[in-house]
Amino acid sequence: MSCKIFTAVVILIFTSGCSIFKQVVYHPDINQGNYLTKADVAKIYIGMSKQEIAYILGTSMMKDPFGTDTWFYIFRRELNHEPIIQQTLTLTFNSSDILVQIDNKPTFYSYS
């Protein structure tokens, strides 16, 4: 009798896969990129210089590989057992290093 129960439990565990252990296994929180608050982004406006923006937001993690006229502030957060969150702020400058365009994309959620 106990052999049948043991066999049934083993078969149940193997057929259910690892999904039952997903919430039990620890996954560290992973933050990557430039963390920007809404208050910091609100301080940025068209007509500012690169130096002023670097003072407020810090230097960007990514710059345009074909020139220095576009800065990308990208923040990605992967919390334990929650969707991945990504925020992207793109700043474009003219040849005089003056901000001419702000593209603040909404927060993106990815379920993995």
TrEMBL record:
It is a lipid-anchor. Residues 33-99 form the Outer membrane protein assembly factor BamE domain. Gene3D superfamilies: 3.30.1450.10. It is found in: Cell outer membrane. InterPro entries: BamE, BamE-like, BamE_dom. One of its GO terms (biological process) is protein insertion into membrane. GO terms for cellular component: Bam protein complex. Keywords: Cell outer membrane, Lipoprotein, Membrane, Palmitate, Signal. GO terms for molecular function: protein-macromolecule adaptor activity. NCBIfam families: PRK11548.1. HAMAP family: OM_assembly_BamE. Part of the outer membrane protein assembly complex, which is involved in assembly and insertion of beta-barrel proteins into the outer membrane. PANTHER family: OUTER MEMBRANE PROTEIN ASSEMBLY FACTOR BAME. Belongs to the BamE family. Part of the Bam complex, which is composed of the outer membrane protein BamA, and four lipoproteins BamB, BamC, BamD and BamE. This is Outer membrane protein assembly factor BamE.
